[in-house]
Amino acid sequence: MIYEYPDLVAPIRQGDIFVGLPRVEVSLADIAVLEKDDSATKRQWREIALQGETVTAVLPVRPVTAIVATQDCDATHEQDITLSEVRPFSDVYPPAANASTPKAWKNIITQHARANQKWFYLPPDERIGFNDKMAVDFMVTLRVPRAELESLRDLRRGRLNDLADEHFRERIAEFFRRYPYDEWYPLDPDELKTYLDKYPDAEPYPWQQVSPAR
Fold it and tell me: Reduced to 3 states, what is the DSSP secondary structure of residue 56?
């Protein structure tokens, strides 16, 4: 498909896919802090932050699959490398759960991919370990030390080929430079009414309100 399988000694580059990397789950409410006697105390993060403390905390960590988002030149020199998590496609893009035909998937992979800049599609590949359709979730990132990731290159299962990597690079750029706006703002009241049938949470703007008849 769209993958390559680099040698173990090949340098890390953008588009490399790793398995078993740690994703740390951090709560901004209660957090378990280790005291000097190694006992754990539950404290509020607000309290810790306002006091400017440095604490040792107990945090849940789980292994995830992730793809290198850092550019090639930085991936060979910088102290840290940024990766984006890879998850089953329907987890990243829930509407895909209803897709059951090649035509439906064709529309999602082509048309929907152009409109939705928050994910990048990855097809199945047994050698990498993708038994189902997967997606890169640009909203979820991991930062790991470069030198330590280089020592774990045996966890690299593959990488995007040149064509896919160019597309991946552009999608990352599109994601971070996208302009967020409410797409319904230029609709007139009648058009907005139709829009609200499908997206009821959209908040009308003042100029879209219909003045009551006198």
Answer: coil
Question: Do 111 and 167 lie in a common domain?
Answer: yes
Q: What is the block-wise mean pLDDT of the chain (214 residues), using blocks of 10 residues?
A: 94 96 90 86 90 88 96 92 96 87 87 82 94 95 96 97 94 86 89 90 86 49
Beta strands in the chain (DSSP E): 3-4, 16-24, 30-34, 40-44, 57-58, 61-68, 80-88, 119-122, 134-145, 156-160
19 shares a domain with 113: yes
Give the rounded distance of the alpha carbon of 177 from its chain centre: 15
